Amino acid sequence: MTRIHFSRKQLCIPYGLFLALFVVIPMLLILFYAFTEESDGAITFTFANFLNFFTSKAKLSTLLMSFTIAIISTALCLIIAYPVAYILARSRLKKRHVLLMLFVLPMWINFVLRITALRELLDLIGLLGTQNYLNTLIGMVYDFLPFMILPLYTTLEKLDNSYLEAAADLGGNQFTVFAKITFPLSMPGVISGVTMVFMPSMTNYVVSDTLSNFNITILGKLIDEYFTTYNNWHMGSMISIILLVVIFLTMLVTGGFRDSKQEARGANLW
Asked: Shortest CA distance to 178 belongs to which of 72, 89, 74?
């Protein structure tokens, strides 16, 4: 009986095919549409879509609106999630994982159902239709808060207590230990959570449409309109490329591309 042997390189073939079919080829198509235009049946190379975006006040205001909503939503998620994750991670409760599950439980419910339920709640208390920006922020925080809690909890739970004990032995009070040891060591979780919240907040137009009665337009909605309503794949692709660049720069600034080296940093913090 002949045995079939596979090398490690051969095992990478399915993954390479997947990347080629569902990542590389679609990206090339988007680039093609973004820098071309169709006139009289002929396709020509052009930068008109790029110039049109940055010379249009409406599109720039949409970009600014998306950026503002994403920043505020991310900041609110971080402010709420960090104390929750810290208390859960440092708690001595044996069933703290059950408490963590309660925060993750809404993610098991269908997204549209959750947002619709939140819409009904806002309507019940009289906010729907009157506080469009506030409602959108509430929806973003409600939807993405678990994505901030989970990485923070995972990072804080794995902190080496010896660093904290050493800092306390050297005379550090609780605030000093937290500021110089705990928070710096939890930065990988912070960066991961910020990345997971910030990027979707710029594109999740279902939340803004549902909770603002279509009065707020973010980049995700603008892309959808150009692809579906206006049937303008060229402009839609250009906006997609610009959004991709914004996401890339955000990850570059927050350090999303760098490997976390908690132990090496923690040994030199104090």
From this structure: 89
